[in-house]
Amino acid sequence: MKRSQINASIELAMKTFREYGISLPGFAYWTVDDWKNKGHEADEIRDCMLGWDVTDFGQGDFTKIGRTLFTLRNGSLRRSGYDKSYAEKLILDPEGQRSPAHFHRTKMEDIINRAGGNILVQLTKANASNERSNEHFTIKVDGVVRDMAPGDIVRLEPGQGVCIPPRTIHQFWGEDGTGLTVSGEVSSLCDDHADNCFLEPSARFPEIDEDEPRRYFLCHEYPAVSQDAALETVSVGAL
């Protein structure tokens, strides 16, 4: 994936969120230079992988298979001191762009249409072999039960949300002809290193062709605290 695609996707997301009246926290706008001065006071952002997350899942076709997300809050199973058991993300949903079909072993999530066009969510249960099941099942859309056959699609209009239990294979994307959509994900703790089960070989984080300078760090790219920033953090804490 090219760095130019990542830069452009982040700036499109910023523009779209702003146009839809969705505000981002200040660290969404921290540049590469800004991060040089961030000490341990920003460790939660680093350690819980908050911030921008742009990926083509190693597929090399970002317009079809890809995601531009911003993680607002999360906990961590790998680092002590971060006790949140929940997570929240914003997702830019261009028409037709989707993630690979996947499920989560433990995470339960709600996908919510926050603004824009419609979102199509395709759902199937996973069987004991981690493949698509023929099982019929139920899900809830805004608290109302729906009966589902394998591969059925739920259309979410702005304001609607669907609850996706663990071990439910899902893909979702912006519906053609309805424009850019912003979805939200509210979930139990998100562990992207261990809890994603893709049905086809996929890389959660991309290999990047640095065809232009990085403007913003992705959530897995944050630099370690510099010595100067660490000293500044200690000095401020001592006041």
From TrEMBL:
Keywords: Carbohydrate metabolism, Isomerase, Manganese, Metal-binding. The keyword Acyltransferase does not apply. Its cofactor is Mn(2+). GO terms for molecular function: D-lyxose ketol-isomerase activity; metal ion binding. InterPro entries: D-lyxose_isomer, EcSI_cupin, RmlC-like_jellyroll, RmlC_Cupin_sf. Its EC number is 5.3.1.15. It catalyses: D-lyxose = D-xylulose. CDD domains: cupin_EcSI. Belongs to the D-lyxose ketol-isomerase family. This is D-lyxose ketol-isomerase.
